[in-house]
Specification:
Blueprint: H1 3-18, E1 32-36, E2 50-52, H2 55-67, E3 72-85, E4 88-101, E5 108-118, H3 120-126, H4 130-136, H5 144-156, H6 173-180, E6 186-197, H7 203-215, H8 222-227, H9 251-262, E7 265-269, H10 276-288, E8 294-298, H11 301-315, E9 321-324, H12 327-342, H13 352-391, H14 397-411, H15 416-450, H16 453-466, H17 471-478, H18 483-489, E10 492-496, H19 500-503, E11 511-516, H20 524-532, E12 534-541, H21 554-564, H22 568-573, H23 581-588, E13 595-597, E14 600-601, H24 606-616, E15 622-623, E16 636-640, H25 653-670, E17 681-684, H26 688-701, H27 704-712, E18 717-719, H28 721-724, E19 729-735, H29 744-750, H30 753-759, E20 763-771, H31 783-792, H32 806-816, E21 821-828, E22 831-839, E23 842-849, H33 861-869, E24 874-878, H34 879-884, H35 886-899
Length: about 900
């Protein structure tokens, strides 16, 4: 197989796909809140930082932009290509800038001069080469020189560009519409504001894919060669067991981290709410502590932002990360570099000796921790034998002597729960010491680097480049510096896939490891440049969640494959439309040591996640929020609305009103809470029109201050499942909208497994399902019927799992007499607990050991760590020490319960 041909084919598929996301006519319904500017153009010429528009227009447009901030974008359109093309009149903006309304100054509008793109429709109409047009507009500023070059370029493509001589004076709407009907294409000086569906910048990906084709397989990184079938993975070389991560990891996470250190490709399956972002952050920090470089990329800004937050929360600072690519993020980076060069961050440098002492402290804590874990396990074993002896019903003389001696020995020793409490303190100390060590290490390396003239020069060059408006000028500055020295000081870079080409050159194996998140939503073409930049690759995602969307027709994909000489087997394996990065990785990586499945679900209460767990993950998720105390029955609520779905609009108005009523109730119930306790809220429907109807009803049925409270205090998100990928909310309201007359095709749309799974797994604490469909009217076997049937079954608090033995009952009675609520034989996060103690909001568990019966065995170390990650404290209590030190044991139990030093849930 010629892998270069495969890359070339994927490149053309990507180019064709992205060319279908442009705007043919500014005056069409695709462009919302249009506003043509008059007079002289001042933004794209960089004459003024902002312009003033009508406050009334700005208020309406900015309100719309806020409501649709995830699905749509505000743009500033410049230069219009007008005329008929293939019998179709149009007025297509040639250039788009990213724009925004100033919330502090109503009526003011500004653009990001560095964030521009050419309308793909214009290039398609002219059959023009994107690269040549991009070169003309490299800086984004439309000064006289650029306009002159555009006149010449347009003329070469048969366009009348005479009107551009009047630039920056603008023509009006009447002139544009007249030119749109003309047979001759013309490029007119005009500018306007509008709101468009969001699109992904594609020019950088296309250029870099072309670079990969030219480099050939021999010039590719190891992960890229493997993923395109050109290489065989080497055998796993193993690694040490020390993970430099300030957190308690699960076995699966440890396996993933171990593989990421040595294998060219590692695959991480992360179902909803299982700590995937946390695991990615742990991988990054584990590499940073070893002096290595990490690139984290995703097509979703939200995904990389969450990873950055996890990294910073683990180490208590932002000394290691660069969130690159967007205007606000670059401003933060510039401030950091300025602080470095001014000496602000190295005023109190960390010495080599100080760093060594801290590392020695980390190692010492680790040794003590491992030693204490072994000691505690040995004490558990001894407690079993002692308990058997103390529980004998007919002891002989020798047994009585041994009992006396056992009581004497046990009385003089600390309780098992005291040893366990000390172990818990060591876990906390280890995390704090490791976080401090990583911060000190970064500060020390920064100080050493900035002592070198060449490195300071590189930092100054980077700062100079970031201050440039023109992309060509930025690239010229980048070429002057050694990027390696920058990456040694700032080792973790987080970036959106569409921004990667703007911030980092495509240098082979520039990073030690690259991590691609939300891989099920990544097409194969856009991720190849990421692979080229890394020695090793981690692919993270969930094949059971949303897939990437392609608008490329199948027949066109087939034509491109024929043109590129792609064989049938290659077309199937690297199918641009149908195969995501997650699909390809699952097919290519078959060594279990390189694959990890995150099975601890932290997000949702059991009633919310249980259906997804059973239906999509075969019951393989460990429910970390499984808690026997408190009412668990209200996590999932079903409301039958008896509404009807309008055949013309697809809107179920009864359900719309029910959702609005629920939002009103949530506002009332949370009005007495402090701001930090306001629950976040999401509203989801499978149908866009139902979402729009709910959005419209918000403005019609709620007061402006209530709408404002929902968006600002409750972080309200409205949308289809695609708006919620990677998102979560405390409370989710789901409107299925369908009624008994639902057609088979509509039902198939609702029951698409990836969309359905995302839809029902966003809620953390409460999910309310609105539907108008009697379950009896649905096919017997189907996702929606199964879900509604499951959701309609009233869940009750889990009963005790077994009959308590005499030891359990004795401890229970003593604690209840002291006013403590005791739940015997329950499960927490899937682990059996002998006694769960509840005192108001304070909760802990007792693991009873050594009495022959249900409480004989101890909870093993692995399960104990599961409980710790779930935020639940469990303390062991041996039967022998209960008999020897009952009063002291009760005192320690009461102390631990009422001091309530709860753990935080790890992800």
């Amino acid at each position: 197989m010629s892998v270069e041909r495969v890359v070339s084919w994927l490149r053309e598929c990507y180019r064709e796909d992205r060319s279908r996301t442009g705007v043919h006519d500014y005056f069409s319904g695709k462009v919302l809140h249009r506003h043509l500017l008059a007079g002289r153009e001042e933004l794209a010429t960089a004459w003024m930082p902002e312009v003033v528009v009508s406050p009334e227009y700005a208020a309406k447009a900015s309100e719309h932009a806020a409501l649709y901030r995830r699905e749509q974008e505000v743009v500033y359109a410049c230069l219009f290509l007008c005329g008929q093309h293939e019998g179709r009149a149009g007025c297509a903006p040639f250039l788009f800038y990213q724009g925004c309304f100033d919330p502090q100054h109503p009526g003011r509008f500004e653009i990001d001069i560095s964030r521009w793109r050419i309308n793909p429709n214009c290039l398609e109409i002219l059959d023009a080469d994107a690269e040549s047009a991009n070169e003309l507009l490299a800086g984004g500023v439309l000064d006289d020189a650029v306009i002159g070059s555009l006149r010449e370029w347009g003329a070469r493509h048969g366009v009348d560009t005479e009107a551009l001589w009047s630039w920056p004076d603008l023509v009006d709407a009447k002139s544009l519409k007249k030119a749109a009907k003309g047979l001759q294409l013309s490029l007119l000086p005009a500018a306007g504001i509008g709101i468009l569906p969001r699109s992904v910048s594609s020019r950088g990906v296309i250029d870099e894919l072309g670079g990969l084709v030219k480099a050939g397989e021999s010039g590719w990184s190891a992960p890229l060669r493997f993923m395109l079938g050109g290489d065989v993975l080497p055998e796993h070389s193993g690694s040490d067991d020390f993970f430099a991560v300030p957190a308690l990891l699960s076995r699966s996470q440890e396996n993933i981290l171990a593989s990421a250190r040595v294998n060219p490709v590692t695959l991480c399956h992360g179902p909803p709410g299982t700590g995937k972002s946390f695991t990615i952050a742990a991988i990054a920090l584990n590499h940073v502590a070893r002096g290595e470089r990490v690139l984290v990329a995703s097509h979703m800004d939200h995904a990389v932002d969450v990873v950055q937050e996890k990294i910073e929360s683990m180490i208590g600072g932002e000394e290691v990360t660069v969130r690159a690519g967007r205007r606000g993020y670059l401003s933060s980076l510039k401030r950091f570099i300025e602080a470095c060069l001014s000496g602000q961050l190295t005023a109190d440098p960390v010495s080599e000796a100080g760093l060594a002492r801290q590392f020695s402290k980390v190692k010492g804590t680790m040794r003590e921790l491992l030693g204490d874990e072994r000691d505690l396990e040995e004490e558990w074993c001894k407690a079993l034998g002692r308990g058997k002896l103390m529980a004998k019903s007919d002891p002989n003389i020798l047994d009585r002597i041994r009992r006396r001696w056992t009581e004497h020995v046990v009385y003089r020793r600390p309780l098992l729960m005291e040893l366990s409490a000390h172990l818990n303190d060591l876990y906390v100390e280890r995390e704090q010491d490791l976080g401090k060590y990583i911060r000190m290490q970064r500060k020390h390396l920064l100080h050493l680097a900035l002592q070198q003239k060449e490195v300071r020069k590189d930092f100054k060059t980077l700062l100079k480049a970031l201050r440039k408006y023109r992309g060509s000028e930025q690239e010229a500055e980048f070429r002057k510096m050694d990027l390696g020295s920058i990456l040694d000081v700032l080792p973790v870079w987080l970036v959106n896939l569409s921004d990667l080409h703007r911030v980092l050159p495509m240098e082979k194996q520039l990073f030690d490891v690259a991590i691609i998140d939300e891989a099920s939503q990544c097409d194969l073409a856009s991720v190849l440049p990421v692979m080229q930049r890394a020695k090793r690759l981690v692919i993270a995602g969930d094949g059971r969640q949303l897939r990437h969307m392609s608008f490329l027709p199948r027949h066109r994909q087939e034509s491109l494959a024929v043109e590129a000489g792609i064989k049938d087997a290659e077309k199937e394996q690297y199918n641009y439309r149908d195969v995501s990065l997650m699909d390809l990785a699952s097919a290519m990586v078959d060594d279990s040591s390189r694959i990890g499945f995150l099975n601890e679900h932290f997000r949702s209460r059991p009633g919310i996640i249980d259906f997804s767990n059973q239906k999509f993950y075969r019951g393989g998720l460990q429910l970390m929020r499984e808690r026997p105390w408190g009412d668990q029955s209200d996590a999932l609520e079903v409301r039958f609305c008896e509404g009807t779905r309008d055949e013309a609009t697809g809107v179920n108005q009864i359900e719309v009103d029910a959702v609005i009523d629920a939002l009103k109730s949530l506002l009332v119930s949370s009005s007495s809470r402090t701001p930090v306790k306001h629950p976040s809220i999401g509203v989801l429907s499978p149908f866009r029109n139902q979402v729009e109807a709910i959005r419209h009803a918000l403005g019609e049925q709620l007061e402006p201050n209530e709408v404002n409270a929902l968006f600002h205090d409750h972080d309200l998100c409205l949308g289809t499942a695609h708006s919620f990928q990677g998102e979560e909310r405390d409370v989710m309201l789901l409107s299925f909208a369908v009624d008994p007359g639902v057609g088979a095709s509509t039902l198939r749309f609702v029951e698409r497994e990836d969309v359905f799974n995302v839809s029902i797994t966003r809620a953390k604490s409460k999910q309310v399902v609105f539907h108008s469909l009697p379950v009896t009217s649905l096919p017997r076997r189907g996702l929606l019927a199964d879900y509604l049937n499951s959701a309609s079954v009233k869940k009750v608090t889990a009963p005790q799992q077994a009959e308590p033995d005499a030891f359990t009952l004795e401890v229970l009675g003593e604690l209840e007499r002291r006013g403590i609520e005791v739940l015997p034989m329950r499960h927490v996060a899937g682990v059996g607990i002998d006694l769960v103690l509840v005192d108001g909001e304070r909760v802990m568990g007792l693991d009873l050991i050594g009495f022959p019966g249900s409480s004989f065995e101890a909870v093993d170390r692995h399960k104990g760590k599961i409980l710790r990650r779930a935020g639940f404290r469990l303390f062991p209590l041996g039967y022998a020490e209960w008999k020897s030190q009952k009063a002291h044991a009760i005192s320690v139990i009461c102390y631990e319960l009422r001091h309530d030093q709860r753990y935080r849930m790890m992800p």
